[in-house]
Every structure is written in C-alpha cells, then in structure tokens.
Amino acid sequence: MSKAATPQIELPSADASIAQEMARWLSHLGAERRLSPKTLDAYARDLRQCLDFLCTHWGERVTLARFAALEATDVRAFMAMRRADDVSGRSLMRALAGLRSFGRFLEREGKGKVGALSAIRAPKVAKSLPKPLPMASAKRLADADERAGEERDTWILVRDAAVMALLYGSGLRISEALGLKRREVPRPGEGDVLIVTGKGNKTRMVPVLQNVLALIDEYVAICPHSLPPEGPIFVGARGGPLSPRIIQLAMERLRGALGLPDSATPHALRHSFATHLLSRGGDLRAIQELLGHSSLSTTQVYTGIDSERLLEVYASAHPRR
Predict the structure, then answer these.
(1) pLDDT, tens digit (0-9, with 9 covering 90-100), for 197-252
(2) Range 262-300 burial, b when 16+ CB lie within 10 A, else e
(3) Is pLDDT of 100 > 70?
C-alpha cells in the first residue's frame, strides 16, 4: 500500500514516527492479513493504551527508537496496570498479541527489534466450554408455531424460525446466515449446499437440509418485500438488511417461553450443531471444515463438551454397589 493511501493517526503520547508506523501496520493487517474491522479497532486501542502508559511511565512522549528499546519490565508494568483495571485475561492476551504483531511489523520494516515483547509470557485464560442446547430445544427454536401468541406478522415469525433453523442445521455464525444473498440459497430440491463467507472473507461449502430450505422458501413466499437475487435473503421489517440484534431478541423471547437458560443464544445453535454431530460419531476434522475453523484446536473444545455429557450419563446410569 502506498504511503498516500495510509490513513493519518494522531497520538498525543507518541511522536509522528510511531503514528506513521502504526497507521501502516493497521493498513497491512487489514489489506494483507484481512483482519476484521473489530479486531483492528481492538489492536489500535490496545496499542494506544500502551503508548499512553509508556508516556506517563517514562515521563516523555514515546519515540520509535525508545519503543524499539522497550524492556520486559516496561511491558510487565503495562500489563499489571491493565490487570489492576480488572481487564480479563483474554483481553490481556489480545493486547499482548497486538503489541507483538506491531513489534514484528517494525522488525520487518527495519525499524528496530522489540525483543522484550517476545520475552513476556502470555497471561493464562480460564477455558470455558461452549454451552450447547439439548437437541429437542434446538429443534423447537426453529418452529414458528412456538411464537404463535406474539403480536407480530406471520412472515417475521417464519423468517426468524428460518434463520435459527439455518444456524442449527448448518452450523453458521449469525453474520454468515444474514450475509447470504437470495441467489446463494437453493430452492428445495434444487441443491443441498451453501457457499458462505466467514471470518477473514474466507468462503467454505456447508450442507443445508431440505427441511431448512423448505422453511426458508416458506418465508420467501410470504415476505412482503422485494428480494432481488443480489440482495440479502433475510430482510428486516422495513425491507432493509436484517440486524443480528433482531434474531438475538427473538431468541430472548423464546428463552422465556421454552424455559431455556441465558446461555441459549443464536451462537449456541452453532455450538449445538457441532456437539450433536460429534456425539453421533462425526469426524472432528470434518466438523472443523464445516465450522470454518482455521485451527483444529478451536474445534477440539467440543470434545470436552461431549466428554462432560458422557460423564453425566455415566454418573446417572451406572449401577452403584
């Protein structure tokens, strides 16, 4: 990317050289690494906080040369300050990852080697298992009749049920489901796969059940708004793109009606998809491909869920002496 295309960044706690390299680094992460805007914002915020801390810590504005000479004690002091603000271990780990990324960028550009960042051990993060829904509950969420008493148009209830059926039936993220164009979703009997765009604009092929396609087709047939081939297949009440928040609110209403815990979210349907496949003998690497995980270790968390389920069955059914 040319320097002319690099955005300008103002850093009260650092000089222009740091600001310029930070702007180039963020542009690189967005264009070359294809990181999401949310991740870029988080990395930029973490670096700004670090620079603000160092400016106070050193008593002067941070220069590129001084940052390159960063010592491990400086990094530990920054992490301790963040921890004192009750920042979670996961957020601290992300902050360290972002700082290391900036340090590697400076090294590749010949602007110094920030070795202190590599010497710091990443904070421990308590592992929390995803909380899938029971199979029967996941299926009920995709039944529009469960919300028949609500004062909402029938097409909206059918739309929400179709989205939830898609999340559970194909293991999609909510952003992936709502990002589908009408031409990308086959009619019942005319196809059984979807090409979805996930994180990092990576595409993957996922199967879709015929009963899910039938539910989507029912929604399309009664939707009062125009659904052109290149437009989103799921639209809001006024015909614009459907917000994820609308599906989240629909799930909140269903939680109360079905007596489900707060962990029953749209994303929990994706967890349920993976867990139920695994419990029925699904191959872990195949599930990794279906979910669009770049690393098998991310998918392996579901083996922990299934092990817990087996132990619960054992504890409740095993004959005791």
Answers:
(1) 887 788 888 888 999 999 999 999 999 999 999 999 999 999 999 999 999 998 88
(2) eebbbbbbbbbbbbbbbeeebeeeebbebbbbeeeeebe
(3) yes
Mean pLDDT of 56-72: 90
Q: What is the mean pLDDT of the chain?
A: 81
**Residue 125 has which token pair?**
């993060």
Mean pLDDT confidence for 32-59? 90
| Residue of 270, 271, 285, 321 marked catalytic | 270
DSSP 84-118: HTT--HHHHHHHHHHHHHHHHHHHHTTS---THHH
293 belongs to the catalytic site: yes
| CB atoms near residue 178 (< 10 Å) | 21
173 catalytic residue (yes or no): yes
Among 199, 204, 255, 309, the one annotated catalytic: 199
Question: What does the pLDDT average to over 257-282?
Answer: 77
Integer Cα distance of 171 and 177 in angstroms: 9
- Given the residues 66, 253, 255, 267, the one annotated as active site: 267
**Dist. CA 211–CA 188, nearest whole Å:** 8
Distance CA 164, CA 248 (A): 10
CA angle 208/149/239 to nearest 5° reads 55
Let me know if 238 is a catalytic residue. no
Active site residue 33: no
User: Is the predicted pLDDT of residue 310 greater than 50, yes or no?
Assistant: no
Annotation marks residue 57 as catalytic:
no
Is the pLDDT at 136 greater than 90, yes or no?
no
Half-sphere exposure of 250 (CA within 13 A, CB side): 26
* Options 43, 168, 219, 302, the catalytic residue: 302
Q: Does residue 267 have an active-site annotation?
A: yes
Q: How far apart are CA 215 and CA 163, in angstroms?
A: 9
| Token code pair at residue 89 | 């271990």
Amino acid 287: pLDDT: 65
Catalytic residue chosen out of the listed positions 173, 219, 271, 276:
173
